[in-house]
Amino acid sequence: MQPHFNLIKPSWSLKKQRPVKMFRVKNSLFCVLKTFPNISVRKFGTGRMDKVNLKGRSLLTLRDFSSDEIKRLLWISRDLKQRIKHEGQYLPLLQGKSIAMIFEKRSTRTRMSTETGFALLGGHPCFLTSQDIHLGTNESTTDTARVLSGLTDLILARVYSHSTLEELEKEASVPIVNGLSELYHPIQILADFLTLQEHYGSLSGLTLSWIGDGNNVLHSFMMTAAKLGVHLRVATPKGYEPDDGIVQEAKKFSQQFGTELLLTPDPMEAARGSNVLVTDTWISMGQEEEKVQRLKDFHGYQITMQTGTVASPDWTFLHCLPRKQEEVDDQVFYSPRSLVFPEAENRKWTIMGLMVALLTDYKPKMPMLKF
Fold first, then answer.
1. pLDDT average, residue stretch 42-70
2. First to last CA, the chain
3. I need a surface site. Which of 28, 186, 342, 343 has the fewest CB within 10 A?
């Protein structure tokens, strides 16, 4: 009989091991090695991080970004937040530059964070819906990419098909940023990890539990968590598992970085010992006709305070929004454990950090963050 989950156990060097923590899952005993918490990159890795340069890169998926590159993006984002929000500095780092924002899907946070963030940095954002341009219809995606490359410095696209982003990236001569596709939502995950870094003080050794649909946000967590030393536990109903190819990639990352990856249909099993409980909408745009069946299939997956009883005492909650009651109840969503509104605000600072990193040679002024 095949096991109902997949567990990748970490293989750490002895000098990084703590006393072994044991727990039982469905009558099977597993050993999870926890790293020493709060190892500061500030002390050991600042020189290496200073050499990371992302200027001219595109971001379609964080699968293509290294651990140091992701940390660099978070460092720049936190630095801009400190200097602009907390110190009141004006930093026109993108003065004279423009961005084309293509939106096939409507948005609140992606549009507002990108548009206001680019303007705050002195640049000019241009918002384009399917009514403004005819991407791939009256004008080919190839031609659109080439035209916008001559008119703007950066293209962010929120699209239905990831292949549209790949074609834009192939034909454009400026960086392309994935504002969301059916496969990935990388700019959301940058905001999530900045929020957790701010709250916990570091990321390495945290356990994050995803309870819900195996969707694009989960895929981006799977391409990122291990690179930051974060263990990932995933609960999805049968038939709603993450993409098989992405699961295989995530397994490789977990083995490479020595983190735990657990896949299970049991929400309480996924939540056990977790620092962070995360969910997302069960019914994405374009899935409205599936609503009745999906609500039935996701019965029992709502995150409540009961879910938190098996989590770590310091557990927190994330949701990328918009949120529905069936996904998480009010008691959790509006509780002090909920980080959803700082998470939403950090969409602005992380997209700003990303745009600055892709378009300039900016170096953060604040000390390196602790990862």
1. 85
2. 40
3. 28
Selected catalytic residue, list 154, 203, 208, 320: 320
Q: Encoding tokens for residue 324?
A: 């529905």
How many helices, marked H, and strands, marked E, lie in the chain? 14, 12
Give the span between the Cα atoms of 39 and 113, in whole angstroms: 31
User: Is 126 considered catalytic here?
Assistant: no
The answer to whether the Cα torsion of 307, 310, 316, 320 is positive or negative is negative
Residue 340 identity = V
Task: Report cis status (omega within 30 of 0) of the bond before 322.
Answer: yes
How far apart are alpha carbons 187 and 60 in whole angstroms? Answer: 9
Model confidence at 7, in pLDDT bands (50, 70, 90)? low
Look at residue 41 in the predicted model and tell me its pLDDT. Answer: 39
User: What is the reported pLDDT for 162?
Assistant: 98
Q: Is the pLDDT of residue 32 over 50?
A: no
In the chain, at which residue ranges do the beta strands (DSSP E only) sit? 6-8, 21-25, 28-32, 98-103, 124-129, 154-158, 176-180, 207-211, 231-235, 261-264, 276-279, 316-319
Q: How confident is the model at residue 240, as a pLDDT?
A: 97
Residue 209: closest CA among 300, 74, 303, 329: 303
Q: What is the pLDDT of residue 324?
A: 95
Q: Does the pLDDT value for residue 31 go beyond 60?
A: no
Cα(256)–Cα(103) distance, integer angstroms: 36
